Amino acid sequence: MRIPPPRVLTVAGSDSGGGAGIQADLKTMLALGTHGMSVVTAVTAQNSLGVQGAWPLPAEAVRAQFRSVVDDIGVEAVKTGMLASAELVETVAALLDEVTAPVVVDPVGISKHGDALLAASARDAVRTKLLPAATVATPNLDEVAWLTGVQVSSETGLRRAAEAVLSYGPRWALIKGGHLEGDAVDFLTDGVEEHWFRAPRHDNRHTHGTGCTLASAIAAGLAKGRSVPEAAAEAKSYVTGAIAAGFALGAGIGPVDHGWMSAR
Ligand SMILES: Nc1ncnc2c1ncn2[C@@H]1O[C@H](COP(=O)(O)OP(=O)(O)OP(=O)(O)O)[C@@H](O)[C@H]1O
Ligand SMILES: Cc1ncc(CO)c(N)n1
Questions:
Q1: Mean of the pLDDT values across residues 236-264?
Q2: What's this protein's function (predicted)?
């Protein structure tokens, strides 16, 4: 009988367009040789043009999905994405305390189009309850700004951003410099080790789902037993390839190609 693949759980929102959220997470997990599972926190009506509607699920539904997965199947890594409200952030942080698996926290605040995916009233719970539960937190520069007040406009500021994020308690901070000019540079540190991940910027506007994809790829690597720096390196090359292969769908920003490593 076949040995089962490593099990990875995403706790995130659904993107009806299939490019970000739960859908991006599960595709990434499959592409990287793991078994993806999901706890849906919110349903969004979303496409290449933006988010047309969002409906958080009751906390009870989030708890029930999590327990169904953990109690029977088990998890080797968890990734969190859109959590919508303070109540859901607190619910998920409490559930994470029940597992020993490494946790990748993507502190999703707004979509690429600027639509809110997290209530402003939930930010404090992200800082004080969710970040302390993270093995790795993966904010972009906008998320660094609202989490910590630190504004970064160039590569040299990434170290300062990481220190500010680490002060909230995640074991590692991976600061995504994807929104800066020039190369796409990310900085990973635990306060001692420092790792820079640099990739050429792809001049491709079809980048819907980049952040979700990177965080899920890290979770997949951790589930496979990689160290955080090894998982981040593998995730960076996976997301870079997916961005290079991103394609137009709809009239706006199309998705990255999660299947870029498979023959078509
Ligand atoms: N045009 C690009 N070319 C190459 N790499 C990119 C590009 N844009 C972003 N990246 C990389 O993609 C990864 C995700 O970063 P990004 O800053 O896009 O995340 P995000 O803003 O959280 O995404 P999302 O909008 O999906 O929430 C990082 O490794 C970043 O460096
Ligand atoms: C559901 C969902 N999660 C995360 C993102 C990231 O931007 C998005 N656009 N939609």
A1: 93
A2: Catalyzes the phosphorylation of hydroxymethylpyrimidine phosphate (HMP-P) to HMP-PP, and of HMP to HMP-P.
Q: Is 28 a catalytic residue?
A: no
Question: How far, in Å, from the CA of 70 to the mean position of ligand 1?
Answer: 30
Pair of tokens at residue 226:
């990689």
Mean pLDDT of 210-239: 98
Q: Is 20 in the pocket of ligand 2 (CB under 6 A)?
A: yes
Query: In this structure, which residue's CA is closest to atom 3 in ligand 2?
Result: 21
Atom 27 of ligand 1: nearest residue by CA position: 211
**Model pTM?**
0.98
Residues 33-81: tens digit of each pLDDT: 999 999 999 999 999 999 999 999 999 999 999 999 999 999 999 999 9
Where does residue 19 rank: exposed (0-12), middle (13-18), buried (19+ CB within 10 A)? buried
pLDDT at 125 over 80: yes
Is 34 in the active site? no
213: left (phi over 0), alpha (psi -120 to 50) or beta: alpha
